[in-house]
Write a structure and sequence with these properties.
homodimer; alpha/beta; Aspartate Aminotransferase, domain 1; Aspartate Aminotransferase, domain 2; 7-stranded mixed beta sheet; globular
């Protein structure tokens, strides 16, 4: 008689986006003909860069000919892509990361969910609060989070690191060291980015306490400030303590194409066991490589044309972010992010909850955003606006807010 | 201080293909200019069908235009593909499987490795011997297999079901029922396929004993005999006990394109917990959907042109299988498979081990195959030949064997 994995029963339903959808639907029904603009979109909206489209067509043609057809890809990724990544994302920034330390995959979501498999079942994880929910949920599924305490809104075995206005939305290292630390900079949802000094503090802390850092840098392409590291390997000692997750989703718009990579340095060795070797074994056993045509598309992102086109894409979204941020600040709101990330994180007025603010924005301006409390208890009193929309709609949205 | 997942240390190295590569390299060095033919290839070699190529180009063009661009796919797959699968692979065969019971993924390897996550950590698994190694290895990583016993060549908590000439390579249900049963028909490596009666026995056994069957039907397109089911859902009661894994790799040649699906029927409920709901939650948390362009390629496989082109592809490989099988049988070897699968499973002569046969085939005919013992202890004394090669090379290979 088989049994089911009881840890899944500890997962909490994610009602955030379904609640939003229901509220919007109800509003539309009560107000036929209203024109609602969404600043809640977490997905890119602009087409793939031309260099990527050309690479895809060319690779598809290769698959049509017996002499150039490609079957199974190498488990860890084609070397043409791993070399391009190592050269452009690491060596060019002075980081010592070899092509053979890069593992190509189908998405940073998969990698950020799967990476916990490498660690002991009893290890204690620490997550930022608020944060992208996958880090926590994947650990709940593995039984590492303990029980859910509804009164506290938290799991009993998880260390929550509040990220608020007071600490500049950069978590402070806990007094008692956890085992596995998830960090995401630039951050979703707060838009905060750790500067070199703050990140180096984290690396020093991890090395000193024997922690591993899972560093999610999916939004690194949005960094505009000089002193913000694009990779954790810009910090001394990171090769001994950190795994880095990267993605082609938010820079080149691959959310529907699926391509990402994870860096596991060979220096990451615990009691004689190489995490690089373990991750390679996991890839070999549970994964069969990203599609050849998509890996060629990824390679095209590193050509001069690809780089220029990606800069334009990022510029497009960041101009939206600027419009949103300046618009809400000019109205007297406190707003954060939007400088090194496509997310603007707005403090709701004193005494107004995240959901109250959602309701009033919908009702008075016909604008949809995302209540901060949906990303964790410390997100209460905040609200996320995203820059992935159409430019005219973004301008119109800000105009509506300023007209209240 | 983090720890590592100690279960990974129980994994046994897979030396099969690296040992083969070393032996071949050594032979080539000793015999410069020799022309070696491989009948060991487990990957397709023919280009993608024209209908698939057209669908890919068309979908790539959609990604280049803001009005048709697609971002994140639905976690469980686009409905255009799920509907096509439900209609063609199930309803057309009289199986009651709904589109919402189909989960699109990037590969049957991923699915067959990940599916064990749904079950209790103490559940006992049963695997065929010999068999595709992923079922076992993914359970070793999860700690479900127990310790490896080098003397027996087996894990202590795993039920091995020998598949030999004596039982027609169809495993017999164990006396003491395990919890999770992995079956693969048509089988890799033996090429055996269970007929309707034998498969119905398995379903009845699973229902009676409260087991779940993980049914890998990745090779169903190669079935040529009438009484061999293409899906386990052709059997009564399978909706209550079976999960089915399918793939586009070996029918349409998607090994380098990555597309597969898993069926989890809504009737699969354990103590009030729906496995369908659990798998949906896993997809939603740990996966972000297969690429849009690849899902359009999958859809093209179900068009009249796509179906005809896939029939031709399968026909091409099965003609190779026939040539191999008839060739070795005419020489007096006992050979199995090659009728409902692209694999021919040859019995080595009395007293000749799998590796001895490998050496002699390489030395006397310059042909490379795969020793059966590499797929499990009961594969000793057998040898796998595959039909995925070039036709002329396959003919030449058989000619060489017959000339000994």
């Amino acid at each position: 008689m088989y049994t089911v994995n009881a840890n899944y029963q500890e997962l909490q339903g994610s009602y955030l986006f379904s609640t939003i959808a229901k509220k919007v639907a109800a509003y539309k029904e009560a107000h036929p003909g209203c024109s609602i603009i969404s600043l809640g979109i977490g997905d890119v909206t602009q087409p793939l860069p031309d260099a990527v489209i050309k690479a895809l067509h060319s690779a598809v043609d290769e698959m049509a000919d017996v002499s150039t057809f490609r079957g199974y890809a190498p488990d860890l990724g084609y070397s043409f892509l791993r070399e391009a990544i190592a050269e452009n994302d690491y060596r060019a920034r002075g980081c010592e990361i070899g092509a053979d330390e890069i593992f190509v995959s189908d998405g940073a979501k998969s990698d950020s969910a799967n990476i916990q498999e490498l660690f002991g079942a009893e290890d204690i994880i620490a997550v930022c609060d608020p944060v992208y929910p996958v880090y926590l949920d994947s650990n709940v599924m593995a039984g590492r989070a303990g029980k859910y305490d509804p009164a506290a809104g938290r799991y009993t075995r998880v260390v929550y690191m509040p990220c608020t206005k007071e600490n500049g939305f950069i978590a402070t290292p806990p007094e008692k060291a956890p085992d596995i630390i998830y960090l995401c900079f630039p951050n979703n949802p707060t838009g905060a980015a750790a500067d070199k000094e703050r990140l180096q503090e984290w690396v020093d802390y991890a090395v000193k306490n024997g922690c591993v850092i899972i560093y999610d840098a999916a939004y690194e392409a949005y960094i505009s400030e000089e002193n913000v590291p694009h990779s954790i390997y810009e910090c001394d000692g990171a090769r001994q303590c950190a795994i880095e997750l990267r993605s082609f989703s938010k820079n080149a718009g691959f959310t529907g194409l699926r391509l990402a990579f994870t860096v596991v340095p060979k220096d990451l060795v615990k009691d004689g066991v190489s995490l690089h070797g373990m991750w390679a074994r996991r890839h070999g056993t549970k994964y069969n490589g990203a599609p050849y045509i998509v890996q060629r598309a990824g390679e095209a992102c590193y050509t001069p044309e690809g780089k220029a086109q990606i800069r334009d894409l990022i510029g497009f979204y960041m101009e939206n972010a600027r419009i949103i941020r300046e618009g809400v600040v000019s109205l007297g709101y406190e707003a954060f992010g939007g400088v090194n990330s496509p997310y603007v994180w707005l403090k709701t007025p004193e005494g107004v909850s995240s959901w109250d603010f959602f309701d009033s924005l919908l009702d008075r301006c016909n604008i949809v955003g995302t209540p901060g409390c949906g990303f964790g208890p410390s997100g209460e009193g905040y609200f996320r606006l995203t820059a992935f929309g159409d430019k005219d709609a973004t301008k119109e949205a800000v105009m509506r807010i300023t007209k209240i």
